Structures are given as structure tokens and as C-alpha cells.
Write the C-alpha cells for this entry.
Amino acid sequence: MKAIVCVDNNWAIGKNNDLLVRIPDDMKRFRAFTTGNVIVMGRKTLESFPGGKPLPDRVNIVLTHNQNFEMKNVVVAHSLDELKEILKDYESKEIYLIGGDSLYKQLVPICDEVLVTKVDFEYDADRYFPNLDNDEEWYVDSESEEQTYYDIIYHYINYRHK
């Protein structure tokens, strides 16, 4: 499994159930990686999508403790063990963990790779991704040249689990 995320200099990822920044090329990159594959998310992440609907052309898997939650075109898991069993059915496809912060904290340790868009800024935030730079289990496998979108400077950094 891979995680994909956009973070700021403090590894912040969101505020008030929304992204901190929207960079068109980063959104295209997200679509390119996840389309035709499996995405794993929490219920609040799903609710943050346009219309609160699952993303098209992907298998949308939602982990939630809400036993009554169901939605068309969404596979629902109610525990980490149930999620792991469900994921066994998708071994041939790429699986991407897409948030939110609680799921990242629980599942990043079992990911093989994390695809990070690192924005050179510090936003006001209330949700964070684990800081991979301070975790000796992870190393930078590759880093892009500096990218810009108006006054936003960012890099694509791929981290690999040791």
C-alpha cells in the first residue's frame, strides 16, 4: 500500500475537514496515481469530496466506526482488521491511502511508499501527517525539482519504508 498526501513544512494536511491548498498539478498527479486503483480513506475524508460522493473510476474503501454508514459505490470497513481482510481482494491493484489524519497515523507504518507533495509554507491547520523526516523507518527515495504555482513553492518527494 502507498499513501499519497500534500503537506506543509509542519506536515500539516488540513483544517476544518478541508485541504490547506489546492494546486492543479498536484490534483492531476493524485488523479493519475489513483484512477483505476483502490483508495482507502476515513468517512470524513469521503465527506470532504464534492457532494460527499466517492471518486469515480476507483474502488473507494471507507473505514468508519459508524455501524450504520453505507453509501453506493463505497466498500465499508468498520475496523482495521476488517479493512485488512477487504484489501486482500485487491492485491493486484495499486492501493492508495488518501486520509485523513487518523487513518494516516494508523496505516502509514504498514505502507511501502509515501508520495508527498511538500509545500514550502506553514499554514494554520488542525490535521497533520506523521513527520517522515523525523522517522528513521523512512528515507527519501526521490525528490523533484522545485515546482511553483503562482507564489506557492513545492516539491514532490517519494519516501520509502526501510
